Amino acid sequence: MTMNSTGRPTSLSAIDGDVPTQTVSGSxxxxxxEGLLFEIGSTQKTGVDLPAPKGGKDRLGGVTRTASSNLPxxxxxxxxxxxxxxxxxxxxIDLGLFPLGSCTMKHNPRLNEKVARLPGxxxxxxxxxxxxxxGALEVIEELAHWLMTLTNMPAVAMSPKAGAHxxxxxxxxxRAALRARGEPNRKxxxxxxxxxxxxxxxxxxxxxIIDEINAAPDGRVDLEDLKSKLKDSSDxxxxxxxxxxxxxxxxxxxxxxAELIHAAGGYFYCDGxxxxxxxxxxxxxxxxxxxxxxxxxxxxxxxxxxxxPGSGPTVLSNALAPYAPVPFIVKxxxxxxxxxxxxxxxxxFGRMCAFHGxxxxxxxxxxxxxxxxxxxxxxxxxxxxxxxxxxxxxxKPLMSPAFEGYCMHEAxxxxxxxxxxxxxxxxxxxxxxDEGYHPMTMYFPLVVHGAMLIxxxxxxxKAELDRFCDALASIARRAVQKDPSLKSAPHLAPTKxxxxxxxxxxxxxKWTPEPPTLKAAE
Amino acid sequence: xxxYYTNEHEWISVEGDIGTVGITAFAAEKLGDVVFVExxxxxxxxxxxxxxxxxxSVKAASDVYAPVSGDVTEANxxxxxxxxxxxxxxxxxGWFVKLKLSNTAELSGLMDKAAxxxxxxxx
Lengths: 522, 123
Description:
Radius of gyration of chain A: 26 Å
Largest sheet of chain A: 7 strands, mixed
Strand order of the largest sheet of chain B: 1-2-3-9-8-5
Helix content of chain B: 10-25%
Shape of chain B: globular
Number of strands of chain A: 13
CATH class of the largest domain in chain A: Alpha Beta
Largest interface: A-B, 10 and 10 residues
CATH architecture of the largest domain in chain A: 3-Layer(aba) Sandwich
Number of helices of chain A: 14
Shape of chain A: globular
CATH superfamily of chain B: RNA polymerase II/Efflux pump adaptor protein, barrel-sandwich hybrid domain
Low-confidence stretches of chain B: none
Order of helices and strands of chain B: EEEHEEEEEHHEH
Mean pLDDT of chain A: 92
Distance between the termini of chain B: 28 Å
Number of helices of chain B: 4
Structural class of chain B: alpha+beta
Order of helices and strands of chain A: HHHHHEHEHEHEHEEEEEHEEHEEHHH
Oligomer: heterodimer
CATH superfamily of the largest domain in chain A: Type I PLP-dependent aspartate aminotransferase-like (Major domain)
Structural class of chain A: alpha/beta
Largest sheet of chain B: 6 strands, antiparallel
């Protein structure tokens, strides 16, 4: 029997020799096989017992559905088990280290959840009279205060509902400011080649034209290329830059970049996706930025990635603040009040969403900030950077770091060490699944060949980092030894290697019932 | 007919002032299985080194740049319907667009086959 270092069997089955691998039910051990709702339920069944509607008068002008909707009915235990079984197949941050680079998959503290579930927060409705939700408004105000303090920025728009929504908020503010200046013809936005894809997409969505800036060999913005793009600056609207950037590196020239952009008449949008690496240590306002979104669901630990919605408050400089979206909160003699309408804020570029933003995330993020305090938040950034550098240092001898020197909050490797092995980045990722880990981010950023981007976050212990590094190191060794089994990994997961090409080329997006003849034959 | 190559891994085969453009076998191999292609409509003007098409593989989405300036005269709808053609025959049936060149002098800055092969070997 194979044992691990603590003397426990490493195989799921403690018995050596021939053991059954197939079952009649399709379930394996206590891991349940689960079909689609349509396969489990039936149109002949319902989980609720409702009386037939009375009256039955058609108030829809004759467009009432008469045919069956063909939606499957399930009993409550069937529906409950369906979702619990699916959740057991899911990999989650509550289950293990989640090394997706650029995603900041940190632990979501339970204290946040406790506070968010207090009835005064959990049960408020956005259409309640404002006088009855003063506590909730105060939470938004206090969170806004701390976000402005941490970034040293004079204003913040709280309503954007995710990172890219925050980018949209920032770029729409820039567009409004340019229009107010009488320079709507400034259309060119500079974007580094390593940028998150949402940056150029956001700028294009706002009607800007994207101009790419090359990366220097050290993975940062090529300052000379930037200067050449600014030679004729009459059409420059601004720059969108992530710092630390997507290669996990701090843009050392950021102050110079801000000066160049401002001298060219443009605005500086900073993508705050990687704020976790610098929170409490660097205030983006000191670097000369005009707008930055803050991913509450990354830096401030609110659940994301299927676990909850994003939230992307966007801090704004004095130059952009007048154009911030509604709603925003003002203090009045009667307490806190929302300014909801464009007519009350004529310079505002308008409204970005219904209601007021992600209230549930606001309570969690504020809890996180207050429970950590200034020293705690500083340590968040320090430990996030330390953990990433630990991974970089441990794997450096076996894998190929994309750039020289230390990294910030994420370690980036290229596929250089896989040259001539026949093994590719995707095989390494699939190998990690067999080892019980969600794969790292792969093939991003695009500027690094076969990129593998690992962000451990500060919430992993050294023991857990070691376990992860041991697993990844063993895969790297197998790759260099041209282990053919990596090409078909994962072998131990509930489903084997999926055909991603076929799934993308001819996706089957709709469930269709089995032909009845098949059932009859059974 | 002469074929030229760019350092962004496009090829263009020119006959008179009409050029057929695609991505090179090297690029197709690096991209992996192509799953989606977006092509410009006939009649669109493209600028040398400007965005011309989009190609998406299981690994990444990439822009395809125009090797020279001109007007798109025809787009290869066969690769839109069946992107696998780009991997199967990138420098033949997997062509992207035909261009009417607006300035044939722009060709002089591009590589020939030997120079391109050398360029790829150094990648």
